[in-house]
Amino acid sequence: MAIEPLPYRMRPKTLDDIIGQQHILGKETALYKMIAKQHVPSMLLYGEPGIGKTSIAHAIAGSSQLPFFSLNATQAGKKDVEDIIVEARISGKVLLFLDEIHRFNKLQQDTLLPHVESGAIVLIGATTENPFHDVNPAIRSRCGEILQLHRLSVDDMTTIIHRALADEKNGLGRYDIAITDDQIEQLAIASNGDARKALTLLESVYYASDERDGKTIVDDATIASLAKRIGVYGDQQGSHFYNLLSALQKSVRGSDVDAALYYLAHLLESGDLTAVNRRLLVMAYEDVGLANAHVGSQVLAAVQASERLGLPEARIPLANAVVLMCLSEKSNSAYKALDAAIEAIHSGKTGDIPLHLRDTHYKGAQSLGHVGYEYPHNHPIGTFGGWVDQQYLPDVLVGTHFYTPVIAGEEKRLATIYERLQQFKK
Q1: Largest CA distance in the chain
Q2: Cβ of 229: how many Cβ atoms within 10 Å?
Q3: From CA 243, how far away is CA 259, in angstroms rounded?
Q4: In sequence order, what are the residues at sequence separation of 6 or more whose Cβ sits closer than 8 angstroms to the Cβ of residue 375?
Q5: CATH 3.40.50.300 residue window(s) in the chain
Q6: Overall fold of domain 333-424
Q7: pTM across the whole model
Q8: Tally of CB atoms within 10 A around 160
Q9: β-sheet with 68-72: strand ranges across
């Protein structure tokens, strides 16, 4: 068997070999038609590991016939870039695949940029990070296409596995392997849309399986033991991690318990308990808010319990907190009201604090006119406690309303009180 790993050997040679990503490389797409006519634009490929960035770059190289060079930005230096520039001057045009492009420093970028701009170097950059956050704007501006790749489907994965099992030259086709369609589907599901993991898992299963009478017999137990954590991708500092946090919050906000628990599970598997706890506390006040004011203290208790317990037991109180927030009434009225007040200040809507509200805890306050404040507790109003009609906002803001109640859960009662107090004002 060849020394190279199976994913490397099975890498697509041309665009027609690519499985999946039809939204950007299907035969009817503009990019496919351009490359078929030997016109390759500079581009950025953005997506999670194993979904085809490197394979697409190699396939484009195979379809375009351009001299092809591949660098990894975590290892390449200025000299590597200069060597490719020399080759571009000799050949007229070269295709450069730059993996982990967001790791390129400014000096390396400055060396490369004019040659990309002139067309001497066609750049295909690949990144797992959001290019709008992590790729230098100068690089982005010279790449006409920013292509977001999607995780491959189970059908795509089974096709990739079947192809590897049938390929006698680069795959496992020369070996007699007894594997069922159900087992192939198990491999496809376990790899979680990552083609590299699927082929790595397939190769591992082949080597770990018993051989009988010259035939390799794959059993379910071998697949299960090797596939335990293959679906976990946990770069705690990367875009995918923050996308998971965003998806968790939006699922809770949308009251989808199953989706919220799925994203919570993925986040906890990444191991960053601190970031998860911080986001859950924010959600309690941002998304549930006054509609169920008790949720804030309940989520805080769950977070504190998780910190004492640590993983894996921390998942238990956090699961309770997520389900509670999902199924709670929701309101964002309080923080939206504060944001409106902040916006008013930033837009210049400020004024003097009314004299009767100013500090009087010093001699001479009366001589400055700091008088006239009425103590609300001295004016009982039903079961509310105390209230008196007096001005609190500066003169220029009198009559301004920042708070708009949401008629949900406990805030319905607060909204009633708010509206009634408005009616009492002169």
Answers
A1: 106
A2: 9
A3: 14
A4: 386, 388
A5: 21-148
A6: post-AAA+ oligomerization domain-like (1.10.3710)
A7: 0.67
A8: 24
A9: 68-72, 94-99, 121-127, 43-46, 145-148
